[in-house]
Amino acid sequence: MKNPQKPLRETNKKVRPAGWQIVAVALFLFYMLLPIVSTYIFSVATRWDRTILPEGYTLEFYIRAFQTSYFIITLRNSLILSAATILVSLIVIVPTVYWVHTRLTGFKPLLDVLMILPFGIPTVVLALALVQVYNVPPLARSPILLIGAVVVYSMPFMYRPVSNAMQAIDALTLTEAGQSLGANVFQVLSKIIIPNILPGILSGSLLVFSTVFAEYTLTSLIVGAKFKTFPLLLVEYTRINGNIAAAFSVVSFTIAWLVSILILWVGTKGQNGATETIQAR
Amino acid sequence: MAYLDLKNVTKSYSGVDVVHDFNLEIDKGSLVSFLGPSGCGKTTTLRMIAGFTKLDEGTILLDGEDITAVSPNCRDIGMVFQAYALFPNMTVRRNIAFGLLMKKMPKKESEKRVAHVLEMVRLQDAAERYPHQLSGGQQQRIALARALAVQPRVLLLDEPLSALDAEVRVVLRGEIRRIQSELAITTVYVTHDQEEALSISDKVVVMNRGVIEQIGTPEEIYRTPQTHFVATFIGTANQFFGKVSGGDAVICDHFTLLADDVKDFTDGQRVVVLVRPETIHVEPDQPKHDGWNIIPGEVETITFHGAVTRLGVNLHGQRVAADITVANTKPISLNQKIWLLFPPAACQVMAVDERS
Predict the structure, then answer these.
(1) pLDDT in tens, A60-83
(2) Domains of chain A as residue ranges with CATH
(3) Model's pTM, two decimal places?
(4) Is there a contact between B37 and B233 (Cβ–Cβ < 8 Å)?
(5) In a mutagenesis test of the A interface, which of B14, B73, B77, B135 is the best target, namely the one with the most A β-carbons within 10 Å?
(6) For the structural domain made of B236-351, what CATH number should be given?
(7) Rounded CA separation B235/B345 (Å)
């Protein structure tokens, strides 16, 4: 071919930022980072109420935090809740988004509106309503009900990225191409559609993870002490010892980051083409 | 017996027939193209053959077997799409091997097959590349290779060249024809580009508003169009409306045309006379040629097309196109009074298609 259409990548022109731009960005970063940095410092401070910087530093609060009997249990519960939510969310959302983009295109506007609803309903109302409606064993106040509630609550975070990724590929034509080569619906989904929307699935999973891992209201109202999660423990300790609570927060941040990296790593490792696909966009 | 046989195929969307009572027999190993303006039902018909669109009525037989209700992935029919539809997450090699993987072909054999089709489309070096690293023309070659790798019973091409540059289009359509002939694979080719259809097909099916207007070889379609629509859709044709008079003439508003095939029409019937620009001779002085049509006019436009120059001639208010070649015509200038000259055999008389 004479004119290979090389993918063009925009090269940003280097322009020196103006003074006020630097100030604006610095103020923004300060605003965003101050609470986090303070939490980190507070978790290792001996006493920090009479001076600008702490009077001394210690790892004592971390040791006490790790020694807390509930530490491992709540951490495990939070991870179970997050993982289960991601799994259920994927199973519900991915096929739905696929059908809506290929066969039932008329339902897409409806789904788009439905996916804003969780933002509109206050969490407390959602939790209390669910507790009322599903007040039958074995669902009543069970972790299963909690997972169901959290899936609904976090659904927009999964739906948006997955839907956007599906929009970016021509799902119908790719499906038909797969079918004409002998693939059935499951093969089309697993070998063609899912690998191509993997970036969307990954970012959706990350958003859902970070939302659910830090979820407090639903957990406390639906299951309470029966299935204690990490945020519950954290809130409990803010009333007992602020420094230990800070140490818990740091642990929480760290886990969230580690899991994010893990999900990204697993995702790109599992699909060689995914990085290429991401780069191509 | 025909290899691919479409019988009374009908499809309608919200009460309107997109394809109406479509009957077509396609011989094994031939290349048939569906040609028509957008919305004529050609793509719908192709999608019904592929199984992506369900028929409302009719049957489709492939090699004697009724495939009307067979799902698309079990039809063993390959398809090439206008948008290439290569799988972005796979290399060229894996794209081509996909259909073989679905067939559970042993790896060794599959590798051989991939290498063979890559050679066929002359892209052996592209095996490890991703689709986005290839040009449009290269992507469509890979899509063709991918469809051919599984050795389907029928190959369908849905406007495969529409998204490509003019230059690439011409090269690639020649390649498609070459490969199709080599493999003798039964092929249906959908296009709205008449030049494409005429240049590569064994048979052309001209469609309009969901019905077949004419089926024939490219030459038949061009030289002996059977309907007003075909005559105007294929190539350029000057149209003169008039009424039949006697056995050999059509009376138009300002002149009378002599034509050969008027006998099928009744006296006074409203008809259209079609004359191709290349059959018209242009003379600067009044010629003498008994039994030919000789009409005076004035040159309004001159458009140079390379091999020929097209004149737009004003004939009593009607613009008529006439082609001249530099070799056999004296120089013509704008606003010059000239004479148009063409034999009765060049006049094709047809019933007026009010829809055209």
Answers:
(1) 888 988 888 888 889 899 999 999
(2) 71-280 (1.10.3720.10)
(3) 0.80
(4) yes
(5) B73
(6) 2.40.50.100
(7) 18
